[in-house]
Design goal:
By secondary structure, this protein is α/β, with parallel strands linked by helices. About 40% of the residues lie in helices and about 15% in strands. It has a six-stranded parallel beta sheet with strand order 3-2-1-4-5-6.
């Protein structure tokens, strides 16, 4: 049986963050798992025409391990000082260029594996795919990347499956078999994060019918679900953005032709619109374009009554100040 001619490109910073140093210590195991046909078409074994790993400078200590396994290793240090200080790299753009170049120029290539869970690579997947080239990526079960890549790539390796492959050993071949058994792919299981009540409501919103609520209404419902967990407390922008990333239509920056902030100018403008859709969402303006978001439970004091109460308090203070007698020697000319 002919082997699949494949290219393997590893976004190391990304995969290391999802798996820790185990991805290095078990390199020979998970690489053999892929070579033996995990996630390949027809479970055929693979021959890697190219194996490349891309990382930031601090991971160059792993170069000997990967070079022994036949990888080419590339340091992808960022050039801008602010990105260097933040620990960022230029790996994404280098992988993108290599993926397109190898897909177009490698003769008789059957498959391209981009080992990353970074959704920024979706356009790359779409660019290199063609009827004769299969594209495989990775995805996290705990966020939308697995489902997102499943809509674009030919196969998606979820992180639990990769971690299970850290212990992979080739099975013994039976006397009546031409090869050892094909590798087992660990089943996809929902993690605790996705089984939480909040994520349950998010999934329910996402699974609505086409004629169901608008994307803005679904966003408001998600923030309401988030706020019900911590009523009358400030909801940070980070938590709100993290929750809204479950919506395919949401992005905080221009991405794949999708306008950021659900079509609004910025985060504050989007929240002002959502406030109109969901009365329990309260947006307070702090000045200089800054806002804070608080979810008020139904039946609590309304913002109008609170403002009136504050106004009454200030009025009482002013009246007290007016009626208070001045000390002797103050308020009249000498």
């Amino acid at each position: 049986m002919a082997r699949v001619r494949s290219v393997l490109l590893v976004d190391f910073d990304n995969i290391y963050g999802a798996t820790s140093e185990d991805v290095v210590n078990s390199l020979s195991n998970w690489l053999l798992w892929l070579e033996d046909g995990a996630l390949s078409h027809g479970q055929k074994r693979r021959t890697f025409v190219h194996k490349r790993v891309y990382w930031n400078l601090q991971f160059d200590k792993y170069r000997p391990d990967f070079e022994r396994a036949g990888f080419e290793a590339f340091n992808c240090r960022a050039l801008a000082k602010r990105k260097i200080s933040a620990g960022k790299s230029s790996a994404d753009i280098v992988i993108t260029m290599d993926a397109i170049e190898l897909a177009l120029q490698t003769k008789n290539l059957d498959e391209l594996i981009i080992l990353t869970t970074d959704s920024d690579f979706v356009p790359v997947v779409n660019r290199v795919q063609n009827p004769g080239l299969r594209v495989v990526t990775a995805g996290k079960e705990t966020d939308p990347t697995y489902e997102l890549f499943s809509q674009h790539a030919d196969a998606v390796m979820h992180i639990a499956a990769l971690k299970s492959a850290f212990e992979y050993q080739r099975g013994a071949r039976k006397w009546y078999q031409l090869r050892s058994p094909a590798p087992v792919i660990a089943p996809l299981t929902l993690q605790r994060e996705r089984q939480s009540p909040l994520m349950g409501r998010v999934r329910a919103a996402l699974n609505g019918e086409a004629n169901g609520p608008s994307e803005l209404q679904r966003a408001a419902d998600i923030i309401k679900a988030l706020g019900e967990r911590m009523p009358d407390q400030v909801l940070s922008k980070t938590k709100i953005v993290r929750a809204l990333t479950a919506l395919p239509e949401f992005t905080p920056a221009y991405e794949n032709g999708i306008r950021p902030w659900l079509g609004h100018k910025n985060f504050a403008a989007m929240m002002r619109h959502l406030e109109k859709l969901q009365p329990e969402i309260q947006v307070n303006h702090l000045g200089k374009g800054r806002i804070e978001v608080i979810y008020r439970e139904p039946g609590g004091a309304s913002r109008t009554s609170r403002a009136e109460a504050m106004g009454d308090a200030r009025a009482n203070v002013n009246e007290d100040e007016t009626e208070s007698p001045l000390p002797a020697g103050f308020g009249s000319p000498a």
